[in-house]
Amino acid sequence: MTETTLRNRLDTPRRILALPISRALLALLVILLLGAVFNAEGAFFRWDTHRDMLRHISRYGILACGMTLVIITGGIDLAVGSVLGLVAVLSALFLIHWQWSPLAAVPLCLLAGLGCGAASGVLVARFRVQAFIATLAMMVFARGVAKYISGGRKISQGVQTADGFEYLDFPAFFDLLNARILGNNIAVVTLVFLGCAVISWLLLSRLRPGRYMYAIGGNEEAARLSGVPVAAIKTLAYAMSGLFSAVAGICQTAQETQGDPEAGASYELTAIAIVVIGGTNLMGGRGGVSLTLVGALTIGYLEKILSINAVGEAGRLMLTGFIIVAAVLFQRTRR
Amino acid sequence: MGNVLLEMKGITKDFSGPLVLDDVSFELRAGETHVLAGENGAGKSTLMRILCGVHTEYAGAIYVKGRPVRFRSTQDAARHGISIIHQEFSLVPDMSVADNIFLGREQTGPLGWLRFVRERRDCASLLQRLGVQASPNTAVGAYPIGVQQTMEIAKALSYDASIIVMDEPTSALTEPEVERLFTVIDDLKRRGCGVVYISHKMEEIYRIADRITVLRDGHYIGTAAAAALPRPELIRWMVGRPVGEMYRRAPVSPGEPVLELKELTVPDPGGRPRPAAQDISLTARAGEIVGLAGLQGSGAGELMYGLYGAYGNVIAGAAQLCGAPYIPRSPRHALRRGLALLSSDRKGEGLVQGMSVTHNITLGALASYSPGGWLREGRERIAARERMRMFGIRADYVEQSVDTLSGGNQQKTALAKCLETQPRVLLLNEPTRGVDVGAKQDIYRLMAQWSAAGIAVLLITSEMPELIALSDRIVVMHQGRVTARLDRADAVPEIILSAAMGGGATQRGSSQELERHD
Could you report the predicted ipTM of this complex, rounded to two decimals? Predict the structure, then answer.
């Protein structure tokens, strides 16, 4: 049996090419080749270009990890950007304004994100609100809470006091999160992103709830009749997405050195784009975190190559639109 | 009777496999109601789908009013005056009556403007002709089902349809609505239309039929005037297989009662007032296979689903599982209590098509392969290989996606999934649907093994020989109620079919029923 397994899986290159991961890697390779050609006088071959790209894409990647879970159950989470904004404000408030210990502040921030996600999840799973609507509502609501808490202003080190202006210390925790380590060669937020990817990979591939997520996305009725606790698992997927949004929110504040209530607007679209370019099926049931990692690199490199070649934002956005369509069509034609 | 409206000659059809229709002929005259009768799977619906242009690949010839035709689409058939009234209506509930009737061929003026007023006027006169009190401007969904059905007929008439096919039109209707439908049919006949009427209800057939044509296993059996075809003869035409050819499972000595139902009632999942299954009492003992017989609308499938908790906690009546009270709550709960269900809809409800054979097999019993939540893929694969060997599932490798397997292998995978949960009661809904002969034999062999292992089985199958061959006892249902209880010795196709069509239990059947209630 093992021999047959090996033969069937390895002997035909076509079969390997038919795997979503091969196609995702191929798309990435095309982008990398573009980068090698348009290398902006060698800028593309320097490590700090790659390091900065990875740092830049990390927050989106963290959101995309949670989004992958939700999309595999056949849903969508539009609230990730707003929850990121809410947690950015909260973490700035706790850590910068109130100078709390991260030991207290970080769990509270994560809990807030988890709560938002779980609320979306309960709406979708128990009250059968369409995922698009439920998370759209959460997207608007969380943004409102962020603005309410911050009073609509960015929360930064500068505070108005009775006798003018005072500067608070920037917490060491944020400095650490915003640092580069290993000889200045990799950003800490990139490691956080990888950590999130490992967690969601473990959940999807090594834990029972992950298997149930695939089953629900693949055929919800069959899953229900097989005794899968559909509502609980769906809620878990949205809760995890909220949790990852909170992680991204803390990173956001660390990187921007302030808590902006407007932070994260339209990030949900980038996160969805990353998942889709990776090849995870929007209908649910198929895909994975490894695909999302490749998708994140593809989008990250695309933007980086355009920016080192001094293509303006207008051109970048238009090209990104084209690339998304091209990638998705490419994923489909060989299926 | 009037002129011949329709002739179908030598119709033969296969779906890349065995013949579904083999040299079938059918004739319809103006002003007659022609009942098309046969068991489930006899080929009635396929024949009608060919007539209505749904299936365009077939051998044979169709003549409409003497002219040869070959339809390339449903629109094509509609243009020739052929119209079908489905069990599930093809009306858009939120659109108005008039918009529905003219959907797809709106009357338009220059620049594509809708002739709104004219549509309303035509619609109103159509409704009046059929004696319906309804406003053309009201949404269709606001009317009861019986009225909606008449609107479907109005739509057919608006096409100037002369050949109207009705596929079990009364299955969702109340008694007065049925009466109204029959009046409308009489009216259609007077206007020179021909009506093809498919029904599983004996009363109805003899109420409405001018002639009856019977199909069996895709073959044309015969056509006769209703008056010249007494009920027992009709039943014989429908089931007439030589009994000698049938395989029969060796009888088992049943053990303790495992599943006992007392006056169980399952409400209609669609929310209709009449329960899907009503006051069902039955007992299944360890090692016993109890067949649930019934034609479409019998409620046997709903009984299984209700028992499995698929509709939630909605069941009235009492059930006992291994001596302990059992109230269906959810499939998850049912599985934990030792029930397992094989759905008749393998694609829609049975298997997760994108997942591998292994993952499908272990899905229902995943907890035992993931202690502490961590999946043990190695153990899963070992178990899956074992099941594949036991069940004779042919796949290239255990990680193969289940949707790439043949129908028979998919069905065996679905069965393996059920067995993986180590059930005490197996609810099997059409275990051999869409599988080839070899796989069928495998499944029969497996069922014998399970009953030898003491599993109680409730079996639904639309194949009569299979039902008789496998069942230790047969409970026949019609319109949600038990109409006969038969032991192996009494399980004769004629009696089963007669009871399933609501023809009343035979003498033997009813005495059986009394004995069982003791």
Answer: 0.84
Confidence band of A36 (pLDDT split at 50, 70, 90): confident
Cβ separation B349–A219 shorter than 8 A: yes
Give residue A329's Cα distance to chain centre. 22
B310 half-sphere exposure, CB direction, 13 A CA radius: 26
SS (H, E, C) A90-137: HHHHHHHHCCCCHHHHHHHHHHHHHHHHHHHHHHHHCCCCCHHHHHHH
Residue A185 corresponds to which tokens in the numbers above? 């060669």
Classify burial at B426, counting beta carbons within 10 Å of its beta carbon; exposed 0-12, middle 13-18, buried 19 or more.
buried
What is the residue type of B35? V
Q: Packing angle between helix B116-129 and helix B145-158, nearest 10 degrees?
A: 110
Which residue bears the tokens 């997207």?
Answer: A139
How far CA B462 is from CA of A24, A65, B424, in Å, comes to 47, 47, 24
Partners of A205 on chain B (C-beta within 8 Å) are 375
State the Cα angle at B362 between B356 and B367, rounded to 5°. Answer: 135
Nearest by CB: B396 against A4, A221, A229 = A4
Q: What angle do CA B429, B430, B435 make, to 5 degrees?
A: 145
Shortest Cα distance, chain B CAs vs residue A188, angstroms:
29
**Residue among B83, B224, B91 nearest B167 (CA):** B83
Q: Is A211 on the interface with B (CB under 8 A)?
A: yes
Q: What is the domain partition of chain A in residue ranges?
A: 22-333
Fold of A22-333: ABC transporter involved in vitamin B12 uptake, BtuC (1.10.3470)
Encoded tokens for B376: 């043990």
Q: What angle do CA B435, B437, B441 make, to 5 degrees?
A: 100
Q: For chain A, what is the radius of gyration of the CA atoms?
A: 21
Is residue A11 over pLDDT 80?
no
Tens-digit pLDDT profile for residues B375-405: 999 999 999 999 999 998 888 888 888 988 8
What domains can you pick out in chain B, each with its CATH number?
1-81+162-242 (3.40.50.300), 91-161 (no CATH), 252-338+423-517 (3.40.50.300), 351-421 (no CATH)
